[in-house]
Amino acid sequence: MQMMVSVFLAATPDHRCKLPGWSNDTFNIQDPWHHEIVNQTIPMDASGKYDSCQYWDFSGPNSTLMQCKEVVYDTSTFESTVITDMGLVCENKSKVTPAQVAFMGGGLAGAPLLGFLSDIIGRKKTLMFSFLAQGAFGLGVAFAPDYYSFVIFRFILGASSAGVFMTSFVLGMELVGPFWRKFAGIVIEYYFALGVVILAGLGYLIRNWQYLEIAISAPSFFYLLLWWIVPESPRWLLANGKEAEAEAIIRHAAVVNKVSLPAKVLEAEATPTVSLGELLTGIIRAPRLLIRTLIILFNWCVISMVYYGLTLSSGNFGVNIFLNFFLSGLVEFPAYTFCFIIDKTGRKGPHCGAVILGGLACISTIFVALYADQSDPSTNWIKVALAMVGKFGATVAFALIYIWSAEIYPTIIRNAQMGASAMFARVGGMTAPVIADLGNVVQGNFGKGLPLIIFGGVTVAAGLLSLFLPETKGEPLPETIEEAENFGKAKEDIEVLAVRRFDKENYPYQNGEAENKF
């Protein structure tokens, strides 16, 4: 919710300059006399819409076009937003995007920091810390006294929210066995979508941005009660030499699930590690793996950008903002359900198909913006439909790229490369508000469709590049950089690779060096 609430918190209502000398001026027309004064004072464009930031000053011998000194807002949709309370319009309009980027920037900083913390103190303690920080700084956002305090609190809130989702995801994965891992990894996304749907309802019911922020922040403190329900990760306990605690958790789970266990259930295994230098050197020496890594990183960045960007653009489609937002959350449920077909179809087809389909749907909005009758209400619904197809594709791709990239990366550097992928996703998320705001910066019908056109173009590019990635369905995971480099080659090459794995004497490449035969 915290990630998406800026759709309502930072919404910009219609506004115009306040009439000079009118202490009781309102955006809505009060009576015929008020209507006449507004028409004389506020310039209009060709469509009859009042200028947002200029007015005619008649105090001198000649009328002069002046910038607003005060502004009145349309309160029919929102009682108040950050924009209205902090005056982020006209000359202060440029401050809106940094405020939205701050949250994603916090996520970019918080993901590695809290990930490192969870490796030191455990998943459970990190999750509780993230809940506490999310609630505290969420309330800080609601009561921020000025713009700069608001940006700082949003940054820290973004970091803590990243910790909540990331740690919950890892803890969930580590609490289930291999058979249920894919199921748990996809099902957790349903709750993310549920949060979007609930937020649409809360936004509709609570039109004051401060009360809305309080409503979604306060429950974080109740999540602290999960300390007495959720166990620590047995895998983390085992990796940190706490075998007795790990075994106690596993045996308790066995009792709950009515499963019998042998006397010895745990055996510590050495986990291979790799330094940053070894990671970069190994990839550079493997050109095929390097190209695949660049394609994967581009996909993570683009998919994250489009996923969040389409949600943040909900107010630009011309239909009710709450309904748009609700639909953008609702479409995620069939998207995540679709992902369960990958065991039968493989990863490549569903991923590339969903990405390209979603990108083409977004690009198609240019034809609606330029050629459709904008006065026809059905035109807006066509925009919404195309945007929802784009959101469906981005959601499917977001769920699948995590699984697919993990299966392409070799074990020796898988964690490091997945961390790099997550960082690129955060960068994409940071650019999403910037592109989404182009709909407010570029005027006219083309401006309204410009964000979708950009999202569509980069998405199609990502989908086409993904065609060069190998299919991983039914294939053993590559263990070394050598195996990852040769992954997806002809069958006879794979057979030779299998022989090399077991015949170390005939394996001429050491320290992860890859064969350069291209």
Q: Give the proportion of residues in helices.
A: 55-70%
Number of helices: 24
How does the major sheet shape up?
2 strands, antiparallel
Given the helix and strand composition, which structural class is it?
Answer: mainly alpha
- State the low-pLDDT regions, or none: 491-518
Secondary-structure element string: HEHEEEHHHHHHHHHHHHHHHHHHHHHH
Number of strand elements: 4
Shape by Cα distribution = globular
Strand order of the largest sheet: 1-4
* Strand residue percentage: under 5%
Distance between the termini: 48 Å
Mean pLDDT: 81
Rg is 27 Å
SSE layout and pairings?
Layout: H1 6-9, E1 15-17, H2 32-41, E2 54-57, E3 64-67, E4 71-73, H3 82-86, H4 96-121, H5 123-142, H6 147-174, H7 178-205, H8 209-217, H9 219-222, H10 234-239, H11 243-256, H12 276-284, H13 287-312, H14 321-330, H15 332-338, H16 342-345, H17 348-363, H18 365-371, H19 377-408, H20 414-436, H21 438-441, H22 444-466, H23 481-486, H24 491-502
Antiparallel strand pairs: 1-4, 2-3
Helix pairs in contact: 4-5, 4-6, 4-20, 5-6, 5-8, 6-7, 7-14, 7-15, 13-19, 13-20, 13-22, 15-19, 17-19, 17-22, 18-22, 19-22
Report on the structure:
The chain is mostly helical and 518 residues long. Helix content is 64%, strand content 3%. The chain is built from 24 helices and four strands. The strands form two sheets. A two-stranded antiparallel ribbon has the order 1-4. Strands 2-3 form a two-stranded antiparallel ribbon. The radius of gyration is 27 Å and the shape is globular. The protein starts with 5 loop residues before the first helix and ends in a 16-residue tail after the last helix.
